[in-house]
Amino acid sequence: MESCGTVVSSTLAIFLVLHLGLIPVMAQQNEIQIGMAGQAVTLNCRGVPHNTGVTWKYSKLVIRLFTTTHLKGKAAMTDRSEIIPSSKQLKVLDLRLSDAGTYTCEYGSHAVSISLHVFKLTISSDGHFLPNEVPKLTLMQNSSPPLPNLDITLFNSNNNIVRSKISQDKGPQEYILELKKLEATDSGTWRCHVHSDSPLINQNISFDMKVLGFQNPDFERKYATVDSAVILSWRLNFQKIGWKEGFTGQLNWKQQENAAAHELLDFNVTARGQQHGTKKSSHFRFEIPESKPESTVEVKLPKVHFNHSGQYQCQLAYNGRHVQSKIELVVMKVSANSVGPLPSGAEKTLICQVSSPLPSNAHLRWERVNGTEEDIKKSKQHEVKVEVKVRAAGLWNCHLIEGNDRKISLNFPVEEAPVWIRYVIIGASIGGSLLAFGLACLCIINGISWQRRRQRAKRMARARQHLLENKTCQCQHRLNK
After folding, report:
1. Are 90 and 105 in contact (CB under 8 A)?
2. Backbone φ and ψ of 283, nearest 5°
3. Kind of pairing, strands 201-211 and 128-129?
4. How far apart are CA 85 and CA 290, in angstroms?
5. What's the rounded Cα separation, in Å, for the pair 421 and 394?
6. Peptide bond between residue 293 and the one before it cis (omega within 30 degrees of 0)
7. Can you give the C-alpha Rg of the chain in angstroms?
8. Using CA atoms, how far apart are residues 315 and 267, in angstroms rounded to an integer?
9. How far apart are CA 32 and CA 167, in angstroms?
């Protein structure tokens, strides 16, 4: 019996020793939490009774105590932290990379350990870009050693994977991602997905990418006919993407690629999105429409002239960088080699021309209304005009066609001269001929009369000379007597 009691006592003693040894082990709970630099993080202290005080420590340094009063410790983040009374959670504000490490929540004989892993993502140019710029992202991490190796995947605003060049200049502490050239359509909220197997991390980090630009294409061609009104418009995206920085812009025009540019308009947009514009040029008459869509730069040519054609370039400037969008205005006109009605049997040449060469898929086309295939005349590739010879009255249309799309058209009516005009013309011709004949006869008669008068004058002059010579002889004869 004694040996049996001894065995039981020994077993009980061993159990108590093991139980007492397991108490601190069971009280320790390890948990990983993720925080972002510059933001707030809330660290959980699970299982704390409602009326129990807690002490939060960072690497054995007291951060804060919560009992009947609030006491502050000497840890680096003390002044940026607070204990939430209802849950005993520790909230750290304006998180820094150096705040990463092991945090301990102690209550009674219990302690909960939390490993805080801090990421910091920075974007070049503070996330404000212009098209064709290449952004760089820097992802830094800090935690209790060792630092894990990260797999990083970028997703754009359309949730599509974006390929990037990743480099590690400082080992696993810092990752530098170089992206592709941006477009205005890349604006939006992007996502950086960070993964690690040990410790297990699956973290999404969202950030805004703002690309200031145009909703127009970089180059656009617009067609107009002479004497028509046309509005040239550039739609900016600054309000759509929530751009909060001020920028400036201007609108220039030049008739040809190598010609001097004329500034038509300059404008600025404040950080609040207020837009102000000023007309700069009086080179030709244009208007700024009073009612136009928001975030739009517009000019109106109320009456287009042929020499209004050329390149209209809208340029935006931000922090010494520029982006531009061009609209090429192509103007079309029609004319004839002679004015007035078409006389019977006569011929007239109709001319349709544009101000600049057309793209390869565009051409000019003359056609007669209710005419036949023989009445159709097309321009050749890159020709700026097409001519058609007309021998009969009718209505002719010139179309500018790009691909299968008829862009603009102009008509030219050819009128036949009335019958009485033909008789007037014939009568005028006959009358003119008779008048010319009469004038010729009159000139001949006058010429003959003038010749006769001249001959008579010569005979009279000779007769006077003869008489004078006879008188002189008679006087000399009398003197000799």
Report:
1. yes
2. -60, -40
3. parallel
4. 58
5. 18
6. no
7. 50
8. 10
9. 27
Label residue 28 left, alpha or beta by phi (over 0 means left) and psi (-120 to 50 means alpha). beta
Nearest-angstrom CA–CA distance, 189 and 211? 11
CB 329 within 8 A of CB 224: yes
Helices then strands, counting H and E runs in the chain, come out as 2, 31
* Tens of pLDDT, residues 180-226: 999 999 999 999 999 999 899 999 999 999 999 999 889 999 999 99
Closest CA to 425 of 348, 346, 347: 346
User: For residue 60, which phi and psi values (nearest 5 degrees)?
Assistant: 70, -5
Average pLDDT, the chain: 86
Q: Would residue 311 be called left, alpha or beta, if left means φ above 0 and alpha means ψ between -120 and 50 degrees?
A: beta
Q: How far is CA 366 from the centre of its chain?
A: 35
Interatomic CA distance for residues 235 and 217, integer angstroms: 10
Give the residue from 370, 381, 416, 246 showing the smallest Cα distance to 318: 246
Count Cα atoms within 13 angstroms, Cβ side, for 475: 6
DSSP 14-72: HHHHHHHHHHHHHHEEEEEEEEETTS-EEE--TT--TT--EEEEETTEEEEEESSSEEE
Query: Where is 106: in which H helix or E strand?
Result: strand 101-107
Q: Alpha-carbon distance 214 to 234, whole Å?
A: 7
Q: Is the pTM of this model over 0.70?
A: yes
Tell me the CA distances in angstroms from 358 to 333, 352, 361, one per residue in order: 14, 13, 8
Instruction: Specify the 3-state DSSP secondary structure of 357.
Output: coil
Q: Is 473 helix (H, G, I), strand (E, B) or coil?
A: helix
Q: Using alpha carbons, select from 156, 158, 246 the residue that is nearest to residue 209.
A: 156
Which residue is associated with the tokens 């992202």? 137
- Cα–Cα distance for residue pair 451/439, rounded to 1 Å: 18
CB atoms inside a 10 Å sphere around CB 453: 10
Tally the residues of the chain.
481
Q: Which helix (H) or strand (E) holds 251?
A: strand 247-254
Query: Residue 467 in 3-state DSSP?
Result: helix
With CA atoms as reference, report the closest residue to 122 among 111, 136, 104: 136
Cα–Cα distance list, 466 to 16, 416, 456, 462, 478 (Å): 184, 74, 15, 6, 19
416's CB contacts (< 8 A; 6+ apart) are 341, 342, 344, 392, 393
Please state, in angstroms and rounded to a whole number, the distance separating the CA atoms of residues 169 and 161: 24
pLDDT digits (tens, 9 = 90+) for 11-34: 333 333 333 333 343 445 578 999
